[in-house]
Amino acid sequence: MAEKKQSTFKESLRIPENPWTLRQKTKASIILTKGLSANAILAHNLPQPPTGSELLHIALGFGIQNYTCSHIGARPSSTGALAMLYDITALYPGQTHESLPRKEDWDGLPRRAIWSHRVPLNLNYSSTDGRVEPTSPGASLTEPFPADEPLRIWGVKKPIPFLGHHLFTAAGTADFVLRGGETNVLCDKLAAVDAPADADRGPQGTGAVAWLQLGAKPGSVGGVKYVYRVLTSGGASHGCGKAVGQDSTVYTAMYWFFGQRG
Asked: Comparing C-alpha atoms, which of 82, 110, 112, 136 is closest to residue 253?
C-alpha cells in the first residue's frame, strides 16, 4: 500500500479552479469552510496547521528586518523585525465585491506594497554611524511605529485597515500585537523554508526572506496558535562583506494566523 503523503502548508495556499469558500464568522475572524488546498508558487513545503485549525486573520506585514555584522565576512545575525500589520482578510478573492478579483492580484499584494509605498515606520535618518548600509536606516529606538492608520495601495478599492504591530521582545521573541493587545502572540520558530527562487528581491535587491511556520508560546493572549509568514518580498541582509555594525532591510510578507476550534 502506498504511503500516505503528509499534508503541508504548500497545499494550504494554492487556489484551485474553484476558489476557497470563506465564510464570515465575525468582522475580525473567518473560517475555512472547505479543506485547505495548495499554491503553485510555493517552492518548498511548510507543515500544515493541525486538523481543526481556524483561519482567524490574514495580514500584510510591512516593515524592516534587522541584522548585525560582528566582523567583515561574518554571517549576518538576525536581530528581529519591526512591521506594521494590515488586515487583508476581506481582500481574499471570491468573497465579496470588495475582494480582489484575481489570484494574481492577491499574490502580488506584498510586491505591490513594497515597490509603491515608503516603509510605514519612523526611521532614524539622523545618523549613519555603525550602519552596514548607510542608505538603509533602522527605526527610531524610542518610537518606531507611526500612527495606527490604514494603508492605501494602488489597485485596492479601499484603504487596508490597520491590524497591529510585529516586533521582537527584549528577550528576542517574535511578538504579534493585534487589535490593541486583544491578541498578543509570542512565537517560536517551528519550521522555515527558503523563499521561491523567483520571489521578489525587494527594492534594495537583497533577496526575499524565508517563509516560516511559527507557534504560539505560553503567555500568549488570544486564540492564535500558529502564524505563517509567506509571500515575502525583500528583507534579506545586505551582507557583511564590506562593513560591520547594524543592518536593516525593507520587507513585506503575508502573515496567516490560525487558531484552534473550541
From this structure: 110
